[in-house]
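User: Thanks for the earlier help. One more: Mitochondrial carrier protein. Can you show the sequence and predicted structure together?

Assistant: Of course, both are below.
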Amino acid sequence: MATKKSAGWKHVAAGGMAGASEIVIMYPTEFVKTQMQLQRKTATPKFANSFDCARKIVAEKGVLALYRGLTSLLVGTVPKTSLRFGVFGKIKEAFKDDKGVLTSGRTLVAGMATGLVEATLVVTPVETMKTVLIADQNSAKPKYNGLLHGVRSIIAEKGLLGVYKGWAPTAAKQMGNQGIRFTTYEAIKNSMRPAGEGGALHPTQLMLAGGAAGFISVVLTMPFDVVKTRMQGLDAAMYEGTVDCVRKVYTSEGITAFWKGMAARLPRVVFGQSITLAGYDVFMRLLNKIA
């Protein structure tokens, strides 16, 4: 994060630019991850693993098929990351002690609060539509002709709450993600600086710190991601709620099912957070120089 106090709009602008860059580069891994999570355990699964999934989809439908659902995620990414860094920047300033220091504990709380806000305002509806569009593509007769048609149809059938399926696990996932990522990222950056010295780190160092933060967050929050995806898919009606979803997944597929798709999510998040967190710092530096 930027070391000097900056105008709120800069946090918002830098976050939006960093988020847009990340999603365009990393979306295919998100697509494959979602496909693997939607696949139930059977004797003859269509996809053996994440790499097999990507290979078969490209062979059957072409490379652009890996970008199905991108529109819904991209439309939500800029406001999501803008909101994330804007909210975190404000909370971070408010949480600093009398000496202007933000402890790791307060960074964690600030990150979790940020995750709750973004899950409620942006992430849940965006993730719901992304998951529905990907699952719909797997149907023999797809129902939706793109993002706008999908949104209109779901709201017409189920009301506005139809795009808020899986809010609880999504909120838990985002709180964990942002709390862990911001805390870890700041701690790693601080460890890279010589004792008692400040100053800006090289972009390569920022990317390493962001990647490490992303890796740790994936391992710890993957179960929330799996439950969220199941509750947002076309077969979500089979679950009575978050607890029921956890119970049914565990009973029918075992504990390892909660880490399904991690092979696809890991590179997406590790490289994605390298781009997003480092990109945010770099964009903030640029904005502080020109405005």
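User: Great, one quick takeaway?

Assistant: The chain has a mean pLDDT of 87.
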